[in-house]
Amino acid sequence: xxxxxxxxxxxxxxxxxxxxxxxxxxxxxxxxxxxxxxxxxxxxxxxxxxxxxxxxxxxxxxxxxxxxxxxxxxxxxxxxxxxxxxxxxxxxxxxxxxxxxxxxxxxxxxxxxxxxxxxxxxxxxxxxxxxxxxxxxxxxxxxxxxxxxxxxxxxxxxxxxxxxxxxxxxxxxxxxxxxxxxxxxxxxxxxxxxxxxxxxxxxxxxxxxxxxxxxxxxxxxxxxxxxxxxxxxx
Length: 234
Prior knowledge:
Elements lengths: L4 E6 L14 H16 L3 E6 L7 H6 L4 H25 L4 E5 L8 E2 L2 H9 L3 E5 L9 H11 L4 E6 L4 E2 L11 E2 L1 E2 L1 H6 L7 H9 L4 E5 L5 H6 L5 E4 L1
Parallel strand pairs: 1-2, 1-6, 2-5, 3-4, 3-5, 6-10, 9-11
Antiparallel strand pairs: 7-8, 10-11
Helix pairs in contact: 1-3, 5-7
């Protein structure tokens, strides 16, 4: 395998699958199988999941919610998704531990870099929820922070799109895909890979980002073997 330790960022929206809301169990189970396969091949897997399928703080703020409370609701949505994925992993015999950035025991263990690394080395998956634990930060920034903290080799952003394009490929048929791109170019071109804070954090700490379509089964394994199934940002 190309990488020893990864941080996999999963989109909350992707968990909706075809049903368009909540959690699609078939999508959840497909993710669990791909993650278990990576662990079985010797890869240490840390995971951060968004909460957009349940509640987004920014959307809530636009509808009149207090921004801090809205973001806190979004953090709780990530906990629900993390518990759902941990349950799917346990059901197929994959050891897993959920960590939370906000004290929430016994729902999850308090996040600690050293506890997460110990968990990974033991062959368990570590799911880190609640983003950074602070409002005004996205789960993308939470993922970048966790990737750097747990000393991952790469941060994988599993999305519905198969990489980074010159424009949104779902809206612009002329959009062209990049195989590789620099952090600076992503920021300068204002490409919506991740928010600017997350991209800048990865750039400052030399954390490569790999953007690929996680919804296509088998893509995670291909990426870990070094096949080109997305875009590398470095």
